[in-house]
Amino acid sequence: MVSSQASTSASAAASNASALNTTIPSSPVARSRLECMPKLLYGTAWKTDYTSDLVILALTHGFRGIDTAGQRKHYREDHVGQALHAAQTEMNLDRRDIWLQTKFTPRSGQDWTHPELIPFSYDDAVEVQVRKSVAASLRNLHPWLTFEPFDKVAQKIEQNFKNCKNEEFDAGVEYGDKQTVYAFLAAGMGLPGLKVTVLSGTNDERHMVEAVTAVEEACKEGTWKKGELDRIRRIVYGE
To answer: What is the spatial distance between Cα 139 and Cα 130, in angstroms, rounded to a whole number?
Structure first.
């Protein structure tokens, strides 16, 4: 998940944007300059403590696409970040030359026998879960950058949600291009047919079709601003 700031002149929007700032480091996170996802990705599930070494080995053998997820039940997202750091410093492999994808995992896919390893609380609202997961993933995957402590960010996310939960969801303020679709699909926003499982590791095309259908319904009802539907559709399908 990659984050980018959205600018606005409205005071209310600026307040929301300030909450987003707490999840972004002083230096911008890297974006892949690959035009599309590689045909073959290296999956990091079930690699446990060997994740970092195996990712480096995969990169050494030519892999340029890495898949991980924001949950410790099956993944070590933090070890992927360590491998990326090593690739930059020891292999001279620029982060921008790697396609990196991570996924928000809802609470149903987390291991609650170890709640201390989960970036959100069981009772958090889905919107809060997504924001906290994004903040944790940014830190896990960019260990060479300096971030505000996660605990402080989590508190700000909770407070911002309490203050703004009755306001209309504004994708342009709260999220960057990539995060918009992640948060929208995960939260559901009360739209029919939208499934959280879209972001729990499935690549079932039917779920993505349902997601786009739900977005279209939202657009018809005026929930989304002009042009937002096409932007979301392009993100969903990687166009």
So the answer is: 14
